[in-house]
Each structure stands twice: as structure tokens, then as C-alpha cells.
């Protein structure tokens, strides 16, 4: 699941990875919006809000949205630096380790919410979630050669429309479009489903939601880390 990279990955593996990670992204994106009116997983809305606030002279609000975009980019950059460096050293388990690290970050945020009694309306926590989402999207992009993007909803929706159009064309185009159609359709569905679940659970306990997302990620990463260690590919 997390040990095969690029062309070595099968469609089924990519579908499963997309389902898990996009569900997590959708849940955290919904929670960020409900808690603070900003997106943690999808930067389109945040960048638009930055431009709108800046145009009307609301500098503080504009900078807050710019900070979320910067956090997302920083998370993606941090993941890329880690993964590229590990790949040069032949460490195939780096993707599992990266997903494990993301799970630990969410565990830490959940613990913080419980122990300190904080809320996700606090800017620092929303910024941390944006960093985590940028980190996750970079991991899924790098491991799949950009086939799996768990937070890039606008691009996936565009691709989905193109693939639907291809399915109305000649048989060769239909066959070529079938696999990406399944992948992008599933990713969008799971992102939406995760958003619904995240919004519902948020009403009861934000920390519980963080814990559930963390368990999903750790459950994905730990078996792969063990498998890599047994195979001597850590």
C-alpha cells in the first residue's frame, strides 16, 4: 500500500489510498470551516478570501487566510524534503513513516484539545491542520506520481468532467478514461463523505474526530512499516 511507488502501484492500491486519505481530508476540511470559517484542506477558498479581504482593506483578516495558504505550502514542502532525501538513501518505508507522522500530529492535536480545553477556533490549531493537510497531499502526490491528490478538489472535478466526456467518445478513449474516472470519482465521493462525517462528529467532540482520523492514518501506516522492516527496506 505505502511501499509501492509510481508505476509499481496498482489501480486498487491507489483507490484504497485515495479513499482513506480523502475521507480524512474532507473531515478536517469541514471542521476547519465550521470552527473558524476557513478551509484546512482546500486552498482555493482561502486564497479567494485573502484576495477579497485585501481588496477591501481588511489587512488582518487577509493575512490570516494567507497564513493558512503558507502553512499548507510549508507542509507540502516539508513532506517533499523528507521523502526526496529518504528516497536518495534508498529508504522505501518513508511514505509509511510520513503517514505515521501525520497520524501522530493529529493525535497530538486531539490530546491538546482534551488536556488544555482549547477549541479549533484558535488560529494556531487551524494553521497546524493546514500544515498537516499540505503534508498529506504531498505524500499522496509523490507516492502515486500525482495520480492521487486527496485535497485538490477543483482539479479532480475538472478531470472527472473530462473523463466523463471521454466515456462518450470512441472505445479506445473510453477504456483509457475508465481507471482515472473511478479514482477521481471515488476521491470526490470520499472527500464529501468525510466532510459530512466530520461535521456531524464535530458537534459532539472535536477531539474524538481528531482521534478517529489519527487512528485511520496509523492503521494504514503501521502495518506497512512493519512489513518494510521485515523485508529490510526501512
Task: Name some characteristics of this structure.
transmembrane, membrane, DUF1275 domain-containing protein, DUF1275, 234 residues, mainly alpha, Growth Hormone, Chain: A, 8 helices
Question: Main sheet, how many strands, which sense, barrel?
Answer: none
Shape: globular
Order of helices and strands: HHHHHHHH
Stretches with pLDDT under 50, minimum 5 residues: none
Q: Kindly report the average pLDDT value.
A: 90
CATH architecture: Up-down Bundle
Measured by DSSP, the beta-strand proportion falls in under 5%
Terminal CA distance reads 15 Å
Number of strands: 0
Number of separate domains: 1
Cα gyration radius (Å):
18 Å
Count of individual helical segments:
8
Classified by CATH, the class is Mainly Alpha
CATH topology, which one?
Growth Hormone, Chain: A
* Share of helix, binned: over 70%
The computed structural class is: mainly alpha
What does this protein look like?
This protein has a single domain, classed as Growth Hormone, Chain: A (Up-down Bundle), CATH 1.20.1250. It is an all-alpha fold and 234 residues long. The chain contains eight helices and no strands. The longest helix has 32 residues.
Task: Give a summary of the structure in a few sentences.
It holds the Pfam family DUF1275. It comes from Falsigemmobacter intermedius. With 234 residues, the protein is mostly helical.
